[in-house]
Design brief:
2 copies of one chain form a homodimer. Chain A has 338 residues and is an alpha/beta fold. Chain A has helices at residues 2-15, 21-29, 40-52, 84-96, 109-114, 117-121, 124-136, 141-154, 170-181, 194-198, 201-205, 244-252, 268-275, 308-316, 323-326, 332-337; strands spanning 67-70, 185-193, 212-224, 227-238, 259-262, 282-289, 296-297, 319-322. Chain A is globular, with a radius of gyration of 21 Å.
């Protein structure tokens, strides 16, 4: 990367004597966040990036330390009326039911198969773990990835009638590109399943699989037809939520981020740990305030609850995105419709 | 990365009209592996890289899939007469002994403090784990990193009288640079401690902390003086050796490498799993054959044993580096001495 960067600098420098120079520099002076309304939120982001990338600033941060972490559910894509990964689990349980006659008598599978999601979810976290284990384990990792991709290409969100991976936030896509253009390394740090995300996030967000941190189940190396295969086991390995987020970041990245973005109380330890580091730091919350274009929910929501986080954001001067006020569009498909 | 790459291509393309063009292309025709003797080993590496980066070749691999994984001990730096991390553990145990009077009666600490390493190591893997727990846990992660850096700057290898992090292999440094210049992402995948390595490998190899996979102990998030801190616990989390290497690669990288390099039977599952993937794959073993400049050991060694791996390399056509024959120099300091 460093060499490539040097080559790039060299190469761009060489272009300075060509008439095409104007074309290349124009890229840099265009608005990097066109789907964000002007205002304090956008300005705070641009000011922070300008500061940490300015070699003459006391707040300058070396490129290798420009680590930015993003929650996924409710932060890069929607999470209502249910985490999309749960829709996947439900669809897989229905598809696999004939191979699991025992599910007809066993909750929460019994309720899922009857279509009674209220009851299925009434078993709480334990029930959700059961659903994930029943639908995400017992196959090779390659087979699982294929199943997720197949599901994404054939399933649609009940409200928008669009594939789930089109319900990603256009302003956040621009923010990711903007940060990377300024030599940030962008990571996903999500309570969602790490392999579930890896099946689609590279295409959706430009984030490669090794920059995805998430919850995981255990795996083992087995031999199938004379070849080694990673097999998924019905056993929890790591929950990447709440205190698990700093733990996961330390394990996978090995550095404290200088920029962290989330939307729920599950992201609070990540944002606290990030912003407590020395030097310039940026804490960012997405506040779901738009019941027309997306959803409005915060302190009372069972999914993506943002309660303590809102208080801490105010107390610590973190930036809070008011979705209704700050975003010109929410989803990429709105750009095509305009 | 992809954006940067596009910019690079654009920028280099623009330079085609300038008189400086010659200077930029010269970089590419210089020998990328100057410390490697000409021969089948070097040729196999260059041929593989040329093939997978040639868009007109059937073996072309997209940049995002050019994943290369390297074992560390005995593969990127030396590992004799003991894994260097064990020298660290021993030095730390001696330094901390006054705070642990119980160690005077407890093996393997008792033998370490008496200077009887033969006996300390006679307790096998269990004893080594005890030594690591006793010396690597019970402090914050930041404090641990500082201790490792301090140790590296003050300790010297008993045979070479050089800092341990100067006993890295010059030819492998060139290989890492060569691969990265060809858009490979280079990762360390080592049985050594992940945080022990992260303290120095970025400077030594140009590999950032998030591209380091290793064995780990558990951590917890605690509050110290009102701030969140990652604290290291005396409990094993993950052993990144043998079958653990493919498991660790799948967990951290989420893709099967196309290039894997190791030097012991502990690397065998990684090289097998890598080379069993579809499309072009490269398996590389370092064979320690140089008792004069480094060490000579293989099938009978208790450290870095290479026995089954040698047979598998021959059977599968993997490339085996004969250190004595293939490397012009072993360590970077030899270049300065010449």
């Amino acid at each position: 990367m460093k060499n490539l960067y040097t080559l790039l600098i060299l190469a761009i420098w060489f272009t300075a004597c060509t008439p095409k120079h104007e074309e290349t520099t124009k890229i840099q002076i265009q608005d990097p966040l066109p789907s964000w309304n002007e205002g304090a939120t956008k300005q705070a982001i641009v000011d922070f990036v300008s500061e940490v990338t300015n070699p003459d600033s006391e707040s300058f941060v070396a490129p290798g330390d420009r680590i930015a972490t993003f929650d996924n559910d409710g932060n890069l894509w929607s999470e209502q009326p249910l985490y999309f990964q749960l829709f996947y689990a439900i669809d897989r349980i229905k598809a696999e039911a004939e191979n699991h006659p025992e599910w007809n008598e066993k909750e929460p599978f019994k309720s899922v198969l009857k279509g009674d999601m209220g009851k299925a979810l009434s078993y709480g976290e334990h029930g959700i773990v059961e659903m994930v284990m029943g639908s995400h384990a017992g196959m090779s990792n390659d087979a699982f990835q294929t199943q997720v991709k197949d599901w994404l290409s054939t399933s649609k969100h009940p409200r928008f009638d669009k594939p789930y991976n089109e319900l990603i936030y256009q302003p956040m896509l621009e923010l990711l590109v903007y940060l990377r253009a300024n030599d940030f390394k962008t990571f996903i740090v999500s309570g969602g399943g790490i392999e579930f995300m890896r099946a689609w996030v590279e295409e959706a967000y430009g984030i490669p699989s090794d920059q995805v941190i998430g919850s995981s189940i255990k795996t083992e190396l087995v031999e199938q037809d004379g070849k080694l295969v990673i097999q998924r086991l019905p056993e929890l390995d790591f929950i990447d939520d709440k205190e698990g987020k700093p733990i996961g970041i330390n394990k996978f990245i090995g550095k404290r981020p200088i920029f962290a973005s989330g939307n729920s109380d599950g992201d609070l330890p990540m944002i606290q740990w990030t912003t407590q580091g020395e030097g310039p730091r940026f804490g960012l919350y997405v506040h779901h305030t738009d019941s027309v274009r997306e959803w409005a929910y915060d302190r009372e929501s069972s999914i993506g609850r943002l309660d303590k986080g809102l208080d801490e954001a105010a107390a610590n001067g973190w930036t809070v995105i008011d979705m209704q006020r700050d975003w010109k569009v929410v989803y990429p498909f709105e750009l095509k419709e305009n």
